[in-house]
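pasting input
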Amino acid sequence: MSGQEQIRSNRKDGADPVDPVDPPVAGQAQQQVNTEAVDSILDDIDTVLESNAEEFVRNFVQKGGQ
Amino acid sequence: MKRIFGIETEYGIAFTQGEQRRLGPEEIARFLFRPVVDWGRSSNVFLPNGARLYLDVGSHPEYATAECDALPDLIAQDAAGDVLMTDLLARAQQALEADGLDGRAHLVKNNTDSAGNSYGAHENFLVRRTMDFTHLTSVLLPFLVTRQLLVGAGAIIPQGIAADLRPAESNRAIPHGAQTTAPPRPGGLVYGLSSRSDVMWEGVSSATTRSRPIINARDEPHADAEKYRRLHVIVGDSSMAQTTTELKVGSAALVLDLIETGVPIEDLSLQNPIRDIRAVARDLTGQHRLTLASGRSLTVIELLGIYLEHAARVVDAGDHCLGDDDSAARVIDLWTRMLQAVESGDLSAVDTEIDWVIKKKLVDRYLQRSEAGLADPRIARLDFAFHDLTPETGMFPKLQAAGLARRVCTPEEVSSAVENPPATTRAAIRGRFVAAAHEAGRDFTVDWVHLRLNDQMQRAVVLRDPFASENEQAEALIAGLDRPPSPYSA
């Protein structure tokens, strides 16, 4: 894990530096694409939510921090 | 103008039970920190990237980024913390299985557990000692009360605001979900901006957990105390989207800039900031009316618009502290678009950039699909999954991959930040020392300001200037690491 010899990459790298790395999806299809993508992610997590939500939530208790 | 900033993140520990016994957070924390203790013989270490990694009050793993003087460095260093935690989590899971334990450990980058216990994401900003601290906090406070509209994490919170604003249970927010141990409040649940707002009890004070303030006034500069002090902001939410982190820290830093560069700004002090912070958290429209100490009345959008106008001028004048003009332009741009989006009621222009908007889209869609209510445990579980770093049950990497959560730095920049400190601050020296001393097998002691070899304790190198990335004594100490200590070094 030695960090001695490496130099950090220049933050000015990149074609269009004002935009974040992931450009927004353009066009009228955006909303549709969005909903499909959201549905796909919710489908992925559905098993987790259906299987143990109550048990998980009830037990996620920890002392507070700052 | 130059400034040092950093972020401290406390992570929550959760567990999905298997066939066998349930593991508590303390036990999971021990598994998590096993590789840390193996590496540094302590559960409180500084890393080669200059950051501090430790186990905080309440068994919360905490990662404090190295000092950064440029916002892109901070975003990368903060994201590196998530990578380190995810790695520790994977190793803990293997160790659990090797010990014959089933079930799954989780690290949750949020700010509230199911019982409403709160833990923080603290922002640190270096400010000049010459600045009148009371003036500084009085200008900053109304901004911090309302900033949650720009960068809140989103939370399911009770609609009603507790009438009693005394900090009787100040470390406890009112939880969502059915398994509440806190007294119920009338009015049901709403989707709000931040759960952190309900555990804030003062504007500025030196308390942290008992009567938690928005700004912690504890004066620990970790630098030349005659020149600097550290402003410790503890009201913020942990952010998942890098664009949210960028706006959260960038906007606050710009407000500090306008104060420190002496931009004249009208008195925007609020008559009742603690009452307001709770009301703002429950208003997604930005139309909540704030009563100023002057008697003037402004909506949240109007107030944030005044700060934006001043901040934009600081950026135009090239006088900002963000260390990178593109970042500054992005902060102003997203701040502007966020206020426009909230005002118009159409959040689609920011729904891949701001945590509370991204999460709201998921919650809304889930409610639509499942006909569950906000109090359904599945909604609480969904909220946790948004913040969960566990690869199988966490959603955020998937949101990023699907383009539903935008990034500011590349995965390569984040990987680099796991290994390497920011190049332009004191952290570069600390990182070099830690890496080299570890490589040489030498015992050392490090904090934010000092570097020491344990067999030469009297020769501590003191790094009082956080802006200096080079130091002759430190270089000599590093250069001498391979040599055994001189008998004359005393």
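fyi Residues 1-17 of chain A have pLDDT under 50 and may be disordered.
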